[in-house]
Amino acid sequence: MQGFVGARLEDEPCACLWLIGLPSMKFAGEADAESYNRELQIEGLGTAWALPGLELMMDEPERKADVWKAMRRLMTRWKSIDE
Q: 53 with 22: CB under 8 angstroms?
């Protein structure tokens, strides 16, 4: 999976790769659920943001507040100042 995503990033760079759910974190080589809502530096992929999956947020709605706080911190990476 890292090779596929790495090739896509060569075609079109991105400001921050979103890793949604533990399976995507495992594919990226960062399989630690403690990394949720954090920015990670992943060799070959660059900066990534680790997020809990939708099912986990549905089961544990209190996680949404943490995701929102992290998103507000990181939003400047993909949002222009004019917006």
A: yes
Q: What is the pLDDT of residues 24-82, one digit of tens each?
A: 888 877 667 788 999 888 888 888 899 999 999 999 999 999 999 999 988 887 776 55
Element spanning 50, H or E: strand 46-51
**Full-model pTM:** 0.78
Listed as own residue / partner, the contacts of 55-62 with beta carbons closer than 8 Å and 24 or more positions apart are 55/21, 56/21
**Is 6 in a helix, a strand, or coil?**
helix
Residue with token string 């939708």: 54
**Rama region for 37: left / alpha / beta (φ>0; ψ in -120 to 50; rest):** left
